[in-house]
Amino acid sequence: MTNFTQSINFPGSLPLTRNLLAAACFFAMTQASAAGFISDVKQISDQEVRSGEGYYRADGKWLVYQAEVAGENPFYQIYLKNIASGEVQQVSPGIGKTTCSWVHPIQEKVLFSSTHEDPEAKAKMTTEIEQRKSGQRRSYAWDYDEFYDIYETDFAGGNIRNLTHTKGYDAEASWSPDGRLIAFASNRRAYSEPLSEAETVLFSNDPSSMIDIYIMDADGSNVKRLTHTNSYDGGPFFSPDGKRIVWRRFSENGQEAEIFTMNTDGSDQKQITRLNKMSWAPFYHPSNQYIIFATNVHGHRNFELYIVDIDGKKEPVRVTDEEGFDGLPVFTPDGQYITWTSDRTPDHKGRLFHGKWDHKKALESLGLE
Q1: pLDDT tens per residue, range 259-270
Q2: pLDDT value at position 35?
Q3: DSSP state of 21
Q4: Which residues in 48-84 are b (16+ Cβ under 10 Å) and which e?
């Protein structure tokens, strides 16, 4: 297991590490770049090759995220940060790929997806390392590895338990606010159910086409499929009151995505955005009044953060205005701060950023009480 300490804590404004002093002017520039919604912007991860997709426990005392750390594994692993001490502990096994972590709202447990039980996991790690050493550059593409399963583990990375045990991509999981349910995305039906000839061709060309939203009890039982499309439904998160789920649905050609919400039983599926672009990574503000998400309405590779009311009746409002990628936004449980993933770094690799959130301005911009 990897254990290291980062000296930037949050919320608040503490001194930067020596590694970040050289980028102080850069940070000062980012503080004025968030259209007034975000202030006191700081990079809060710097010791990894790249990092992102951080989520808080309900008490705000822990942050779980994924990161690549120099070593024998070139893929993301899962790390848990103690906000008070700044100590960071690896909680995933260290073999294979991992993604999409979450912290239990009450218990000391972490949820994430991993391929460490893939018999070829170590071989794939070696192949990836050699590929990178060769200097060959590949366009970024998400991996729908059929060996991804959803696991839970304790804060020390022990007592790991497979909750899905099903062939196919099982990932993008999160606990409900009371910890009783898990929403997740999966293309398991492509491996277990008969497909039409057209579906077989579609899945062969695009494994994400069969990904739907599912819900299950926290122990992995009572699995229920909530969406029924031949396009990618993924990234589900529960609303603060636990009554609804927000997610993003791709178009059938995979070129666009919009934000949707539904009841936790799959009923009342409601489209929230109509931007006809790639809108994804939605997340509720703890007030349950609006949703923040990322979209590329300003350019194919220029993802910015936007907010929209939970009913989609208002025009979405732009939050960030930096070139490059700003995405995967989450709010602290008290709603006063925001953490997101951005490549607004000198090396243009994804890192976690954090800033103070102006909730009042958000409400005013959307015309909400």
Answers
A1: 999 999 999 999
A2: 67
A3: H
A4: bebbbbbbbbbeeebbbbbbbbeeebbbbbbbbbebe
In the chain, domain spans:
3-366
- CA quadruple 33, 63, 265, 189: dihedral sign: positive
Residue with tokens 């000062």: 28
Identify the CATH class of 3-366.
mainly beta
Least Cα distance to 1 among 87, 120, 103 occurs for 87
Angle at 161 between CA 282 and CA 73, to 5 degrees: 75
pLDDT in tens, 149-175: 999 999 999 999 999 999 999 999 999
* Tokens of residue 74, six digits: 């070139």
CA dist 156 and 34 (Å) reads: 36
Length of the chain: 369
Number of H helices and number of E strands within the chain? 6, 25
**Are 259 and 308 contacting, i.e. CB atoms less than 8 angstroms apart?**
yes
